[in-house]
Structure formats: C-alpha cells, structure tokens
Design goal:
By secondary structure, this protein is mostly helical. It is built from ten helices and two strands; from the N terminus they run αββααααααααα. β1 and β2 form a beta hairpin. The model has no long low-confidence stretch (mean pLDDT 95).
Length: 189
C-alpha cells in the first residue's frame, strides 16, 4: 500500500509536452496511461509479436522513477549526463517499497525497458517516442517552438524507434514531424 500511495506522486511530475489543447502540459501519469491504451490498440503494428500486458505494465511503471529523479527533457544534454544515476537511485527507493517478489518483477521490467532489447521493450520505447510527437503535432507544435527543437535532435532521439514498430515510426515521421518542419515548428537546419 505504501507503493500504491507513493506512485500517486507521478501525477505531479510535469512533462514538456503539451496536451492537445495546447494550453496544459501533460504529467507523467497521463503520459503512461495514454501509451498503455495506445499499446492495446496498436500492438498489431509491432515488428515482432509482443506480450501486450507485459508491454503495458512496462509503460505504466517506466517513469515512476521520475517521482524522485524528475523529468529530464528529451533534448537537455546537461540533464542527461546525470539522468541514469538519478533514476537508478530512485528505482532503488521506490521499487524498494514493494515486497521482494514484486520489487524484483517491477525493477526487472524497468531495467528491461531501459535496455530496450526485447520485443516488448522495443515496442514500449516506440510508444514512448511517438506519443509525444503526436501531442506535439496535436498542440500545434508549441513545445517544439518554445524549445527551438531541431529535426536533427528528434531524429537522433528516435534512431531506434523503428525497431519496435517501423510502420508507426513512418506514420509519425510523415504525418506529425515533417508537417511541423514545413510549418516552422521544428527547425530544419
């Protein structure tokens, strides 16, 4: 129950991505819920068969560490230097609230997501990357404009995104990213 109460704090972690209203930034819990539903709907596009429940669980817990570590903006190069260290420390504390068997299961799923090597982790990481692109487009590119985001940054971050679902990456690229380059919301240097 201590863990169940603690994870409520995920609702308080604001992300840089705006919801489609373009006015309010989503929080980590909204992000996790959205990707979980997307996974149930879009699992058929995975490059390899996936265990949907495992993937959904992975997505629901992957950002819990941000309760302690904070959200590191995708293009914050300074923040990324200490991100892993902060998140590992957070994982020890937060997953440590669980009984040993559940602690091992959740920590294992979190590490699997971080490694990005299994079909489930690859698909989860695809969801984690295309969901903000969808919201970026849906909010009129507001976050991209505010941060002066460059196409090269987005492509670098998404270098492994096609490994989980090539068709979904292709859709994201052609329907959400490139139209925002054309509109000037994403800088094409």
């Amino acid at each position: 129950m201590a863990f169940c109460r603690e994870i409520d704090k995920e609702k308080m972690i604001q992300r840089q991505t705006y919801r489609t209203d373009g006015e309010v930034r989503e929080n980590d819990a909204e992000h996790a819920w959205h990707m979980a539903v997307m996974t149930v709907l879009l699992a058929e596009y995975a490059n390899e068969p996936i265990d949907v429940l495992k993937t959904v669980t992975m997505l629901l817990i992957h950002d819990i560490v941000e309760i302690d570590a904070g959200d590191t903006f995708a293009y914050d190069e300074e923040g990324k230097k200490t991100q892993r260290e902060r998140e590992v420390k957070a994982a020890q504390r937060i997953f440590g609230l669980l009984p040993e068997d559940q602690q091992a299961d959740f920590r294992g799923l979190w590490e699997e997501f971080e490694a990005g090597e299994t079909p489930e982790a690859k698909f989860a990481r695809t969801m984690d990357n295309i969901q903000p692109a969808m919201l970026g487009d849906g909010s009129g590119g507001r976050s991209w404009r505010e941060h002066g985001t460059k196409l090269s940054q987005i492509l670098g971050r998404n270098s492994t995104t096609p490994e989980g679902a090539e068709a979904l990456w292709d859709y994201s690229y052609s329907h959400w990213l490139m139209p925002n380059v054309e509109k000037g919301n994403i800088k094409d240097e």
